[in-house]
Structure formats: structure tokens, C-alpha cells
Amino acid sequence: MNNRLPPWLRQRYSRSSEIHEVKAALREKGLHTVCESAMCPNIFQCFSKPTATFMIMGDVCTRNCSFCAVADGSPQALDREEPSKIADAARQLKLKHVVITSVPRDDLPDGGASHFAATVLALKEELPEATLEVLTPDFQGNLEALEIVLQSGPHIFNHNLETVPRLYTAVRPQAEYRRSLGVLSCAKESGGGLFTKSGLMVGFGESEGEVLGVLNDLREAGCDMLTIGQYLRPSKEHLPVVEYIHPDKFEYYKQEGEKLGFLYVASAPLVRSSFNAEEALEKKPG
To answer: What pTM was computed for the model?
Structure first.
């Protein structure tokens, strides 16, 4: 296919004082954001808002997904002060919505669940008015680890399916579609008014029917919120883009998701899992 980006994927970047403030706070405390590590195209827009997505437990992943820009290898030891550092940075930046995510840490007995929980609790203490979202790996299906995260009391639990079942071997070779659905289902069944969320990338060669099938599976698992965005190849070593999906198709997926009963659907070429994350809570009923 033609590797040139279509016009709807071209952006003008602007640097502002808010962006510099965020980056300075991150560097001062040795913190990472998925915005930087995953080369997110929305980094300048998101860094200009009172929201941030912190990536805990380092920026080296124990898996080797063929779509992701995060480096893989042997991760570093956990920084036990990281939860308090993130809470301090969030307070300093006056954040209103905080997303906590991580690389998969399959080297840890609980996959890093305790570290997730400690970060959520530190943020609750430092910023009691902020809303908190966790975007977790699958913890290799360890439901006890999942429960540790849920008990910390985030407002939104997010776990991304990323792609359709047929393409898991190519896109997420160390993950399992049904296992990920099970994680979302168990999170929803935990109760307590928790909202669940998941995300898809398109452009890997999936069919429209396959995407709609995933949307149905997510609703059956009780998933409340959905994001759909265009896959963009981070480098020549990653999976190529098979198709650049037209914005009209994203709008169609949004309408179909809303028909299925999702409380919130963000579907557009540059949508990412935590892009405009605060909007999901603002638009929920009640």
C-alpha cells in the first residue's frame, strides 16, 4: 500500500508552556508517560490538559508485541517510591483525571498488581477530587492479581483488546483474546459502580464484520466504554499498516457501538486508549 499518510492523519504540533511544565515535572521525578514511550501522536494536545497517563514500573516490557513502540527486554527493579512520586507530580500539575498504565511485567509474581494498587491509593490520598483510571495488562489471567487492583478503588478499569481474534497471533502473540475478555468481565462483575473500558486499533487487515464482532463481545462482557483508533507503524521493525481507515468508517463504528449500548464511544483515526480520557466520565449518565 501507499505508505504516505492520508490528510486526515496529518497534524500540526504546537509547543506550549503547559507541555514544558509537564515534561519538567516528569523528568524531575524520573517518571514515564505512555505518551512519550509509545510515541503517541496526541502528546502535545494531552500534555496541554489537566490529565496525564503515567506508565509505572519502568519503560521496558517483558513481552514483544509487534505493534508497540515500547522497548522490550529485561525490566528494571520496581521503584517503591514511584507511587508517591506520581501522586506528588499529579498534585503539582493540578491534574483532574489521572490514568495509570504499565508495561506487562510477567516477571513479577502478581504482574505488578500491588504496585498499581499502591499508586491508586497514593493518588487518592494526594488528590481526593481527581478521577482515576487504570489501564492494565492481562496479568496472565491471574484473577487474584486483578482483584488487588480493583480493591484499590479506581473509577475506570481499562484493558485493551487491541485487535480482532484472528490477528492475535500476529499482533499480540503472548496474549489471548478470550483471556482479555475474561479480565474485563471479572472487573465489571466486581461491582462498586466501576466503569470498564477497552480499546481497538484498526488497519491491521481486519474486516468490518470482525470489528463488529469484537464490539458485541465487549458488550457481552459488560464493557461500558470503547475507543477505536488507527494503527500507525512505529518503525520498519513493526507490523506494516495494511489500510488507513477513512474517518467515515470510524464514525460508522461509533454509531454501531452506541447502538449496542456503550455509554461512551471515541472512534476516530487519532483516538488512543487514554486520549481525552476525562470525557468518558463527563458523559456517563448520572
So the answer is: 0.87
